[in-house]
Amino acid sequence: MSSKNDFSGKVALVTGGGSGIGRAVCQVLARDGARVSVCDINLKGAEETLGSLKNPSDHIALCMDVSNKEQVHDGLRVTQEKMKATPTLLVNCAGLGRPAPFLEMTEERFMHVINVNLKGTFLVSQAVCKAMLDRNEAKGGAVVNIASVTGKTGLANNSQYAASKGGVMAFTKSCAKELAKTGIKVNCIMPGPIRTPMLAFPQEIVDEFLSRNPLGRFGEPEEVAEMVAFLLSEKSNYFLGSCIEVTGGHDM
Ligand code: NAP
Questions:
Q1: Ligand 1 pocket by Cβ (under 6 Å)
Q2: Which of 4, 16, 29, 155 is spaced 20 to 30 Å from 114 by Cα?
């Protein structure tokens, strides 16, 4: 599956770019001509992604904790300085889960996931969209947030994760409404189970997940990345505030 897009001349900032879906997004965007700022709390992972990209010297790798406002602003500034341009494509992919039954969930565990998955999406979106507007580069700008189908269905033992993703979906629609007239389109994707380090669960949990999936397999990160690229491209200009399922029919 590879229908190429034309991102030549564009800079993309991808959070969570050091692993899994974010890495595949960086690879697809670089393949289609974008210069990519690969941002991740895990710098080693971001550098590994950088090394896997077409023409690595066109791209950069940065350490960025998306839940930390200073690091978000520093990461954007460094991206602008090194790329000599403002990112007009943004993919909010950084995320984590910290499973626990909600009756035993500590406040710290709850807030950690909310801070990364939901607040992080807000901090990075606000910084990058303001930069596009300040520099008169909003026309053609695009943001894709990676939510999760659990934001719609809920997920036992992952209440804060599912709530954060439901929040990302509502946040996406709100930003899409506010920014539509500026030329920046905002959409999100709800992946089902995708084969990444995040799903390195014990076999019995994997089997339980697969039993709920009509295709009987996990998705591949590239299968999400191609949809991200479509939503960033001009091909999707009538998509706004959409939450697209890439699930293999999981939990339909
Ligand atoms: P992954 O392979 O674990 O990649 C997530 C990346 O985000 C990791 O490199 C992680 O670093 C990084 N990260 C964690 N906290 C961060 C922070 N505060 N700031 C910046 N980066 C941070 O997981 P994935 O499966 O590709 O997940 C990517 C996104 O897809 C997430 O938002 C996830 O919720 C969503 N998603 C995944 C699935 C799935 O089945 N895999 C399904 C639905 C939605 P560390 O490894 O150091 O933590």
A1: 15-16, 18-22, 40-42, 45, 64-67, 93-96, 116, 120, 146, 148, 191, 193-194, 196-199
A2: 29
Cα 23–146–132 angle (5° rounding)? 85
Protein residue with its CA nearest to atom 18 in ligand 1: 65
Contact 224, 21 (CB under 8 A): yes
C-alpha dihedral, 28 to 33 to 36 to 42, nearest 10°: 30
Per-residue pLDDT tens over the stretch 130-167: 999 999 999 999 999 999 999 999 999 999 999 999 99
Atom of ligand 1 nearest to the CA of 195: 41
Active site residues: 161
pLDDT tens profile 23-69 = 999 999 999 999 999 999 999 999 999 999 989 999 999 999 999 99
Q: How many residues does the chain have?
A: 252
Query: Which is it for the CA torsion 169, 109, 62, 125, positive or negative?
Result: positive
Question: Which tokens is 19 given?
Answer: 């692993």
Residue nearest to atom 3 of ligand 1 (CA): 198
Q: Which letter, b or e, does each residue of 59-69 get, where b requires 16 or more Cβ atoms within 10 Å of its Cβ? A: bbbbbbbbbbb
Domains of the chain plus CATH, in order, are 11-246 (3.40.50.720)
**Reading across the β-sheet that carries 185-191, which strands appear in turn?**
60-63, 35-40, 11-15, 89-92, 142-146, 185-191, 243-246
